[in-house]
Amino acid sequence: MTGFNQEIQKELDQIQSLGFRRNLRAYETLADGRLAIERRFFLNFSSNDYLGIARDPRLQEVAVEAMKKWGVGTGASRLICGNLRPHIELEESLADWKKSEAGIVFSSGYSAAIGTVNALVDKNDLVITDQLIHASLIDAARLSKAEIQIYPHNDLNELQCLLEKAQSRFPRNSSRILILTESVFSMDGDIAPLREIVELKDRFGACLMLDEAHATGLYGPEGAGLSAREGVENRIEVRMGTLSKALGVSGGFICGSQALIDLLINRARPFIFSTSPPAMICAAASEALRIVRSEEGDCKRTKLWGHVELIAAELRGIVNHSSSNAFGQSAIFPLVLGSEERAMEGAQWVGKEGLLIHPVRYPSVPKGEARLRMTVSADHTEQEIETLLSSIKRLYRGGDSIKP
């Protein structure tokens, strides 16, 4: 083994000793939506396919037709010759959905975050972030070289203090101060106090970039997001979302003013220097968006929130952790077990019960906050929800050594 590989192996051994090592597993999706791993079958409670449309035949048909017309790959970036009609149509539909002047699609939510933040701020600017924002936004802020200040999770008083201190350093109504937060937090499943955050950023002349990844498709009229439900969508400068969760496809997007989108076309490096997303992905995303905005989408949301309310009501009296306070706010249920070892053992325990619930460990969550991250979909049946609840109750009440 070369010195290079020896050093890598040391790193891997250290990761292993801390209980943080990850490994890829091959999953086989079955016709009924279940997953198989080495011929073992599981009910999937780890997916972000919240409305259950990732396998919808209509998306598959549209994707196949687009592939036949436009090919598998586009062969170039959008600014060269990879800007195809499906890209334009999807962006127009997203902007209409979000009641924005324009939209822009990226190959992933991660690249949307990196490209947008770095197009907006630099070393002369200030980024203020919630403590629990997604890793993509954390990395984006760090790469921008802007000054970063962090407020405790959803702490409006501390956010106000940071804005007050920044007021004397930056002119009002400029892009020098950028606040980053999620509307629905991916690991805790709770929601941001959006109206209050918007009031504060307006009061102090800051700008807000809101990541609606886990709210897109689920809240507000036509599933337009938590900002739409709260009636503040037109007061937020940068609205970020994903195509890969409730819309069941792949990619990320930004909606906002035409000036913002024009700036991203010219300055967002992941957009400029990446081959454009396949046309078939954009076509499928447009079809998914049509479904999400329809009466059928409303029915799917109603079914999903029925599942969420049932699970929240059953688990609030069982899960003895502060995380249970957020149960019912989203389709995400964090079952915090503490140590990395307990989380891994918990995942194995529910696996024996026929459930796939993914363990989440540091650095995705703080040390000592390892958990099973449980998610629910409109595609789940009532019987599957009952199976889930029975298993979780046994986990917490059965006297097992992994019980929190």
Radius of gyration over alpha carbons?
22 Å
Query: How many helix segments?
Result: 14
Q: Give the distance, in angstroms, between the N- and C-terminal Cα atoms.
A: 43 Å
Instruction: Give the strand tally.
Output: 14
What's the SSE blueprint?
Elements: H1 3-17, E1 28-29, E2 35-37, E3 40-44, H2 57-70, H3 85-97, E4 102-106, H4 109-120, E5 126-130, H5 135-144, E6 147-151, H6 156-167, E7 177-182, H7 194-203, E8 207-211, H8 226-229, E9 238-242, E10 252-256, H9 258-267, H10 269-272, H11 279-293, H12 295-315, E11 332-338, H13 340-352, E12 355-356, E13 358-360, E14 370-375, H14 382-397
Parallel strand pairs: 3-12, 5-6, 5-7, 7-8, 8-9
Antiparallel strand pairs: 1-2, 2-3, 4-10, 9-10, 11-14, 13-14
Report on this model:
The chain is of the alpha/beta class. Helices cover 42% and strands 16% of the residues. It has helices spanning 3-17, 57-70, 85-97, 109-120, 135-144, 156-167, 194-203, 226-229, 258-267, 269-272, 279-293, 295-315, 340-352, 382-397; strands at 28-29, 35-37, 40-44, 102-106, 126-130, 147-151, 177-182, 207-211, 238-242, 252-256, 332-338, 355-356, 358-360, 370-375. It has a 7-stranded mixed beta sheet, with helices on both faces. A 4-stranded mixed beta sheet has the order 1-2-3-12. Strands 11-14-13 form a 3-stranded antiparallel beta sheet, with helices on one face. Helix 3 packs parallel to helix 11 and helix 4 packs parallel to helix 5.
